[in-house]
Each structure stands twice: as C-alpha cells, then as structure tokens.
Amino acid sequence: MDPKEKYRLRQFIMQLEGIRGRHTELVSVYVPAGYDLIKIIQHLAQEQGTASNIKDKGTRNKVIDSIEKMIQHLRLFKRTPANGLAVFAGDVSDKESKIDIKVWSIEPPESLSIRLYRCDQTFLLDPLKNMVEVKEIFGLIVLDRKEANVGLLKGTNIVDLSQMESGVPGKTKAGGQSQARYARLREEATHEFFKRVGGVANKEFLGKSEIKGILIGGPGPTKEDFINGAYLNNEIKQKIIGIKDISYTGEFGLHELVDKSHDLLAEEEISIEKKLVQRFFEMLAKEEEKTTYGYQETKKALAMGAVNILLISDNFKDEKIESLELEAEKYKTEVRIISTETREGKQLAELGGIVAILRFPIK
Asked: How many CB atoms are located within 10 Å of the residue 143 CB?
C-alpha cells in the first residue's frame, strides 16, 4: 500500500472513530469488489422497512434517514469501484432534538472481500483497520553482559517489549583460586541471563509468521556468545538476518540497531523515510538554497515547479495535503508522507511538518 493511501485511510478511520451514536443508529455497509451495487441498494431498502419496527421514535427516524441518505449516495456511482466500497451514515448532531445526517464513503486501497450491513452505536471499522496494520514485522534483540532488550520493528515504529538486567557481577582483581571461582560465578550468571533473554525472545517471536526476520546487536562478542549458545529456538535462529556491532543497549540500542541495519532494511518503509529526512537535513546544512520548509514557502516553491521531493509529516492537516499533492502532480514531484514514530520524523514535525528538496534555488 502506498504511504499516501495508508495516510488517507488512517485519517478517514480516525474521523469516523470519533463519532458515537446515542443509540444503535450508525449504519455501516461494506460492498465487496465486483458486487452489484443495485443489489446493495435493494438490500438497504429492505433494511429501511425493518427499521420501521424500531420502538424508539428518535432512533427509528435516524436509522431510516441514514439508510435513505446512503441509498442516494450509492446512486451516484455508476458501478462498484475496483476495490469495493465502504459506506457509513449517521447523525452527527450534538443536540438530541436536531438531526444532522452525514454520509461518508471510501474505496479502500486493498480489495474488499466481505459484504456487510451493520447498525450500531459506533461505525464498524475493523475491515479498514486491518488494511493499515503493518503486515511485515522484524524482531529485535540488543544485549551485553549487563542488560538486554527484546523489541519489534513494526513499519516505522520501534516497540520495546522487554528490558532485563543481568545481575552478572563485574570483573575482580582477586587472584588465585578466588579469581577462578569468581570467573565461574560470572559465567554461571551470564548463562542464566542468556537463558532469560532467550526465553523472552522465544515467547515473543516463536510461531509468529508475520515476523519477517530478526536483527541482533550489541557491543563486543556477547551477542555472538548468545547466538552460538542453545538459548534461542532453532526456528528463531533461522530467521536471523543480521548481527550488528552497536555501542548501546536499552531503548537507544534498539534504535541504533535499526539504524545500523539499513543495508538489510533498504526496501522497508522506515529506511526509505529515514534516508529522505536525513538527506533534507544534510542539504539544509550544506545547500540551504536548495531546500525549503513551512507551508507557505513550500507551496510557493511547488507553484514554481521547483520542488523535487516533498516530505510531509503524518500529523499535518489533511485538507492542506490534498492541495499540495494536486500541485505536486503537475510537476511530477515525488511526495512522501513521513511517520512521526521515528526520531527523524519527530525532527520533521518540529520543523513545521512540511519540507522540500528543490530542483533549483528559488532565492
């Protein structure tokens, strides 16, 4: 799914999630790809008849009016869109004495396979939410002899699942038998620590088909000792796609592991986004005249055909994005929606949420 499509779908879902009926009065309809819209309209007309039996007059009128408005909306379509259609209708008035029926529809970016009619206090959005869920996930393990973290990379979001302290004692300057006994105690403590880390990783990663690969990192040889031992299930070991030397553990170590794994994640959304934002900030420092930021300045650059790449934060206002994208299409400008879940994405948001790399200076 294109990042722009995903962004629009998320915005659509967020808008409808905020609506709640006073009673069972919000209507949701899903039309599968290839299904005859006439049959859907006929079904809705039948549901209108059924709704006339609702005892509460206010609820009855709202449901009947919502279905009628939905039928009128569906008649505007000559045929079912290629991916099907999701349609929603209901009263959005904040006053119980006043009715304000609104209707929304969206052709989802992925093909719909379900046919559904639902009347409830909330809109049924699960089929759309399933489309924006991250399909490919990577497991993350960072460790040294003091601590370890097990996490997930889900799209552009790094999730810290578990943080563990080792309890392994530090090295001693004692000599002779004391040194040997102390070294043995350290190795036993390390072994138990590795067992705990392996146990958590096995629990979080084993049997999860959505996990595409596993990345392991840490300073020094500790990570290799862990991997070479019998701590991870063989199924998990077979999914290891990268072992990286990193300077830190903890949550920062998880981020560093992802950063150091760009060669392995080159086609993943997080790497593409990070590289584009990093490229902008590098140019801002070295070739400021070939960059712009802020809505007004960027809109001006777009109108001049000067924008090569337009980067927009995913928390930027939707209606403004549409006008910018229309302008960008005229000049074949690449548009990327940047997640605010990464450090780079947060930096972009702090700069106003909209920046551009230019084809030529405009100042």
From this structure: 25
